[in-house]
Amino acid sequence: MGEVLPEAAKRLLDANSYWVLSTINPDGSPQSSVIWAKCDGEEIAFSTILGRRKTRNMQRDPRVSLIAHDPADPQRYVEVRGSASMTEDGGKELIEELSQRYDGVPFREGKPDNIRVVCRVQATKVIVR
After folding, report:
1. Which range of residues forms the domain containing residue 90?
2. Structural domains of the chain, count
3. The domain that contains 63 carries what CATH number?
4. N or C: more exposed end of the chain, with fewer CB within 10 A?
5. With a threshold of 0.90, does the pTM exceed it?
């Protein structure tokens, strides 16, 4: 069982803050991407596409780190380290929900043959500064 997400993390997720997801490349180097995310119970959920570097990295090694700073005070931030799981169930619905939340418009998929997945991160360590 993982850590409970603190209110600071939930507040940033509810405020539609942008998060930086870091995964581990095959050579051990970091790979980072800016993502939209939401709170899903005690997990952080986001959508991506199968075949992308971050997806391949998480399939091989599910350890990830997510970080967001507080727009009201950029000196404050939350880092969530944990393990990611992935499913195709609900991928299109989640990206639509996140697009509406972050941009206020329907999501336009770049390629119609993209396979959307839902990734969920269960926290194993949370740092609030």
Report:
1. 7-128
2. 1
3. 2.30.110.10
4. N
5. yes
